[in-house]
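Hi! If you just cloned this repository, the fastest way to understand the data is to look at a raw example. We've pasted two of them here, unedited. The first protein comes first, obviously.
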Amino acid sequence: MPDQKYTISRQSLEAGTIQQLVRDRDGENADILSEEELKISRRRLIPDDNTDDVWLFGYGSLIWNPVVEVKAQVLGRIYGYHRRFCLKTRIGRGTPENPGLVLGLARGGSCMGVALCIDGAIAVRELDLLWKREMLNASYLPKHVSVHCGDRHIHAITFVMNEESPSYVPGIPLDEKARIITNARGFIGTSREYLELTCESLEKIGIRDRYLKELCALIEGGTKTGTPE
């Protein structure tokens, strides 16, 4: 278990704190993207000379800790993906010996979340900061999606699961997920804290996610042998 808890903030992202912790721990086996790889990935969606406002779609920690500067936000739904604990983490909220779980967007269904607007004048700078956070080891794929906000459709960027990543773990039974989330801790805290903060932030904006509530109930009541999700 890590001796010190670090936070995901502008300062820690700019300093590359989490990346350095992984390098110190894993040495040559550190599975993280370089600064140049991160920029190449961002440029595939947003070029360096962009001056337009950029929208993001947040479905998990971007709702309660966006880090980037946001000038507007609105509730919305995307189709073709749903929110699931399907990403195994050995870094932020787990360790190689005891991996944790965090959220990803898995294919199928739909997902309610928040569209976040970044001013065009600072969009490239803010996205480079965001890429350091979301694309640490390419477990996600950055993607353009259409966010349905009532009669309005917003073109936004979000981060969906990279199904080729070894960290993608579909089909884990819900009671096993609850056990993992209960016991995992990494550099930036516990998987349970991540789940609880996500549930709280969704409820505050009027989104009730039955899947997350079932996980919380299993954890609060103690895990039992159960059925797959």
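Ok, and the second one:
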Amino acid sequence: MLLTDRARLPDPVAAVALLPRGSLVILRDGDLPAGARLALGLALASVCRRRGLRLLVAGDPTLARQLRAGVHWPEKRLPPRVRGFATAAAHGMAALIRARRAGVSAVLLSPVLPTASHPGAPHLGIVRFAGLVRRVPGLAVYALGGIDGTTVGRLAGSGAAGIAAIGAFRP
């Protein structure tokens, strides 16, 4: 799963074009002016359709409808019940339980490891991440935060449904 971030991934369209079929892409960049975010969304949606990828829009169901995409809900804005394909952010057990009750398709649990997105912020660690995943059977939980080519192997046996990253997908 790739998350857009202009500061760390300046050309998300090029990065998305390299993802394997079935990957998920989350359009974030909520601070972009509406027209620029729509243009980026349209470009991403086009690449996603051609390559068999699934696009989600972070926190903006209106734009998601325009792009025929799913919604990625921030932890604090997750509605009691979601519609259609949706993912949610989680940073602990309470958020995982709320996400499962809301009916999301998957959750991004973070930060698993120290991350450039939030330098110095506390992180879960692999053992705690794996323990949280075990406590929500049936919920697809993706690892986010500090995941790259050198750290991904540490997730083996953790129960992660997959990984989510930003910088690891730079073309």
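That's it. A detail worth noticing about the second one: The chain has a mean pLDDT of 95.
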